Amino acid sequence: MIKVYNFARGARGLRVMWQCEEMGLPYQVETVSYPPSEAYLALNPLGSVPFLEDEGGVAIHESVAMMLYLAQRHGPTPLLPDKEDPALARVLQMTVFGEATIGAGVNALLTAHFGAPEGDKRNWSVRAHEASVERALRFTADLLGDRPFLAGERLTLADISVSTAVGIYRGVLGKALPDELVAYQERMAARPALERARARCRGQDGPARA
User: Fold this and answer.
1) Architecture of the domain spanning 2-78+194-201
2) Residue 155: CB partners within 8 Å, gap ≥ 6?
3) 15, 79 contact by CB (below 8 A)
4) Is the pLDDT of residue 181 over 80?
5) Rounded Cα gap, residues 177 and 87, in angstroms
6) Using CB atoms within 10 A of its CB, is residue 27 exposed (0-12), middle (13-18) or buried (19+)?
7) What are phi and psi of 48, to 5 degrees?
8) What is the phi/psi pair of residue 20, to 5°?
9) Where are the beta strands (DSSP E) in 2-57?
10) Residue of 118, 100, 75 whose CA lies nearest to 165
């Protein structure tokens, strides 16, 4: 069975659980302490979270890699279009964009917000990251337009990836979003699969059932 290691309420592990719920995949959740234990470091020497194990000796980190792995190993799934579908390129782009562009910028802002000395919380580097994230969000809002999802009429990995990063930016940092993304986040939050994943992330539910 799929096993997802995650901090309690960890958003990037939630991203993977959300996908499992959308696909109807059974999975187990293992909560990781902070700092990580020696037992966890033996599994993942980087100590990074989340971490995924699956049958056949699969053991990987990086949440977007986990998403792509699950879609291909346990698919097919509408979350990842077929290779002949023109939407595939956009889905792959935005799935990576959600972490490599939005998520990376948000990480820098989180570090400054919670860890920087008071005099450095608004230095030039922080302001540059803020501007970069704001540009990325404007790009996302323009791409979304009046469509329900980033790649058209159905949910894909792109939405799970991007919505997670946008949620951290808005929820943890308290930042404002373009109007299009406010409505988008509300649509994502209403998905039953995400509600179930959040309950699992908080340790309020048992194993998912296929």
Assistant:
1) 3-Layer(aba) Sandwich (3.40)
2) 22, 78, 79, 149, 191
3) no
4) yes
5) 25
6) buried
7) -80, 155
8) -60, -40
9) 2-6, 27-31, 51-54
10) 100
Dihedral angle sign, alpha carbons of residues 7, 121, 165, 182: positive
Residue 129 CB neighbour total at 10 angstroms: 18
4 close to 16: Cβ distance less than 8 angstroms: yes
What sign does the dihedral 70-75-79-83 (CA atoms) show?
A: positive
Mean pLDDT of 175-188: 97
Domain ranges of the chain: 2-78+194-201, 87-190
Question: What residue ranges in the chain does DSSP mark as E strands?
Answer: 2-6, 27-31, 51-54, 58-61
Query: In angstroms, what CA-CA distances link 87 with 18, 92, 110, 161?
Result: 21, 9, 32, 16
* Overall pTM > 0.90: yes
Provide CATH code, domain 87-190: 1.20.1050.10
